[in-house]
């Protein structure tokens, strides 16, 4: 962890566990906003669900965006009759993360074509045949330029694939957008 603010060269690793799927660590459960898979103890191997629905490798580190609605509270300046802003409230808040990946994964196909999750044994999928929204736990491990863990996020998210762009070498690079949804289990460690 950085003791003082500094310029950081970063790299991200992303893992996803879809809602409704079973996991075994730290105890058997079903992925939901109130039930998150993970290792039994820090340093233990993670639950296999984190790699079952692989996102691929990150092409460009994630871009986090905050959206909020500011409300200005006004009050008079004593003795002047002038009304000024005395406080700013942000009661509506949103957090999204956008990232471009190097590989086309089953998860990218399902997210873009709004199909059901595409399992390892599946040989086909049905565009527009799913719920249209994929929710689950996103684990982001962000590292600095010398492979030091800088931040680890566990977000309950809505997953959307916004683009399956083709670059100059004819490689498909899916673009994911993750929208933070409320869960009491969500958080970040630095």
Beta-strand percent range: over 45%
Q: Give the low-confidence spans.
A: none
Q: How many whole angstroms does the radius of gyration measure?
A: 20 Å
Shape descriptor reads globular
* Number of DSSP-assigned strands: 9
Mean pLDDT rating: 87
Distance between the first and last residues' Cα:
6 Å
Largest sheet: 7 strands, antiparallel
Please identify the structural class as seen in this structure: mainly beta
Secondary-structure element series: EEEHEEHEEEE
Please give the count of helices: 2
DSSP helix fraction: under 10%
- Summed up, the domain count is 1
Q: Which helices and strands occur, and which strands form pairs?
A:
Layout: E1 11-18, E2 22-23, E3 29-30, H1 49-52, E4 58-76, E5 83-101, H2 106-113, E6 134-143, E7 149-166, E8 172-181, E9 187-189
